[in-house]
Amino acid sequence: MRLSERIPVFLRLVDWQKLSIRWNLENPISYMPRKARTYWKENPDQRVGQVLINLNLLPDTSKIWLDEEKTILESQNIHPRQFTFWGRNYDKDMKRLPKTEWVLIKDMTIDHIQAILDGGWTNGYMKDLFEEELELRKNLPILQHEKS
Question: Are 132 and 143 in contact (CB under 8 A)?
Answer without folding.
Answer: no
